[in-house]
Specification:
Elements lengths: L1 E6 L13 E5 L5 E6 L3 H7 L9 E3 L5 H4 L2 H8 L10 E5 L3 H12 L8 E5 L7 E2 L6 E6 L7 E7 L5 E5 L7 H7 L4 E5 L14 H11 L4 E4 L8 H9 L8 E3 L5 E3 L2
Parallel strand pairs: 3-4, 4-5, 5-6, 10-11, 11-12, 12-13
Antiparallel strand pairs: 1-2, 1-14, 2-3, 7-8, 8-9, 9-10
Helix pairs in contact: 5-6, 6-7
């Protein structure tokens, strides 16, 4: 398992941090996008990843800084160089299919003429196999807006692994449940301890999740400009912890592995 942080920032524009998007490569060779914020397609190309090689796009919620590049991706698939032959899986909260269809109808009804399948799981924490893929997904409701969810993904190669991804959320017990014992908790760190938006997390909130869920390692993403560097955010989380838990502040391009 390898997760590349394509976008470590927020919609508050920052020269070194793009909006939320992450590339997951499984031990079986599958490639999935976790969110598709603006700019993610260019970052894929910069990495040498062809959009035609993506197997799925999983969305944490329907805010544009996590979703917007899905439509340019579909438009690309319709272009002469798109080369989309196998269906791409589009996964989200209940109602995701009708939401995407309504937007595509306004932008270009032919966007969803490319091979695709929709997938929507209830937000009940039940692990279910993603259609046509080798990994399982469980989802919980998040403390945010626009159909938010917290994801837990599990696979078996190169060994059993688990990853939790918060997207955007304020403090909630569901994040603890999703993150229990995972190899990586990939979690937003938008706020500072001085305050911020009530439906986002800060260092003290994240430290509490780490104490309760005990992930093996934690990666901080969705870093607002309040953080001068990702390392500053990681230091702020560690300041609330009494032991040497592994906490990493992510840059665009950071790669997380099982090592």
């Amino acid at each position: 398992m390898q997760l590349t942080i394509l976008g470590s920032g927020t919609i508050a524009l920052h020269a070194k941090r793009g909006p939320s998007c992450h590339l997951l490569k499984t031990g079986s060779g599958e490639q999935l996008l976790l969110d598709s914020g603006p700019g993610c397609l260019q970052r894929l190309i910069d990495l040498g990843v062809r959009p035609a090689d993506l197997h799925a796009v999983l969305h944490s919620h329907r805010h544009l800084d996590h979703l917007a590049d899905l439509f340019p991706l579909l438009f690309h698939y319709r272009s002469p160089g798109g080369n989309r032959r196998e269906p791409i899986l589009l996964d989200g909260s209940p109602g995701h299919a009708s939401f995407l269809q309504s937007i595509a109808e306004l932008l270009d009804p032919k966007l969803l003429s490319v091979p695709h399948t929709f997938n929507e799981y209830e937000l009940d924490g039940t692990l279910r196999r993603l259609p046509g893929l080798s990994i399982d997904l469980a989802a919980w409701p998040a403390n945010h807006s626009h159909a938010p969810r917290i994801l837990r993904l599990e696979g078996r190669k190169p060994r059993p692994w688990a990853l939790a991804y918060s997207g955007d959320t304020g403090p909630c017990s569901e994040l603890v449940e999703a993150a229990r014992g995972v190899d990586w908790l990939v979690v937003e760190c938008t706020n500072s301890d001085r305050g911020g938006h009530s439906r986002h997390l800060g260092p003290a909130d994240i430290a509490q999740v780490i104490r309760e869920a005990k992930p093996k390692a934690t990666a901080l993403v969705h870093l607002a400009p309040v953080w001068s560097s990702p390392e500053e955010a990681a230091d702020a989380v560690r300041a609330h912890l009494s032991t040497e838990e592994r906490v990493l502040g992510c840059h665009d391009g950071t790669v997380l592995t099982l090592d």
